[in-house]
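#struct-help
A.M.: can someone run this one for me? Single chain, 310 residues.
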Amino acid sequence: MPESSFPPTPRSGRARDRVVRSACYAGLVGVTLAAFWPSLTMLIRFSFQEEQYSHIILVPVVSAFLLARERRKIFAHVETCWTVGSTLLIAGGVLAWLGHRTFSPPGQNDQLSIATSSLVMLWLGAFVLCYGLRAFRAGLFPMLFLLLMVPVPSVVLNRVIFWLQTGSAEVSYALFQLAGVPVFRTEFVFSLPGLSIEISKECSGIRSGVVLLMTSLLAGHLFLRTAWRKAALTLVAVPILVVKNAIRIVTLTLLSIYVDPSFLTGSLHRDGGILFFLLALVFLAPALRLLQKHEQTDDSLLRVRVKSIL
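D.P.: on it. Structure tokens below:
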């Protein structure tokens, strides 16, 4: 049951009510922005300096776009939810206080992780307080999408990068063998005719991996309906990322061996990531189309069963 319910009101009254709620939400968000401004400026600076966080400045923009796009569904039923909203606001404030006063993370990354988690929790609490749980459930994806703003804790990030390095090395080695190129591998170091390469952390593909993850989440939300198919599309993006990264490594290496050594340090190496990211999208598109067709088949079967019952 809603915590605050009112008798039906004229359309003008409902419009005024939503304006008031939106003003309250904007005010709460404004207060949090002011309170977390030092952390936010550091987060923005990180997004320009650290390649794995270049997506962060896009996350709130995408979330706001989805909220605006789906506003009729999300704000069809609004109410004031004091209990859950206040609980989330208090939890966000406590987390921020503990992160600032109690914990002493060794680096800026972990400090930002705690501060941004607190900020997102405060935004979620403010939304629930001003618009209610039904609106929050209707806008669950764009609201939870904000969690992608949170920097991954260093211990987790390092493990992910290592896993991507390992996967890229394994697939690259297989591709070199398929191409018939003589190669001797020692962990992440590959000795080839005329040169040696190392698949370093910078070659792990973490930046394009995060963007591909965001793309698969958005594509699933926009073009698929069932939760398990959305999850399947996101899971498919993981091996696609590894294969794409290996293709990039092998392509640049072969070009440097057989065409021009400068390919390993030239513009294709520095700025060619977008080309290989488009290749990953080419791989992802058939998976999306297959899942869509599977949904259409299920819908057709459901209609046939309903007709047979009737």
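A.M.: thanks! Residues 158-309 form one domain.
D.P.: also worth noting: Residues 4-9 have pLDDT under 50 and may be disordered.
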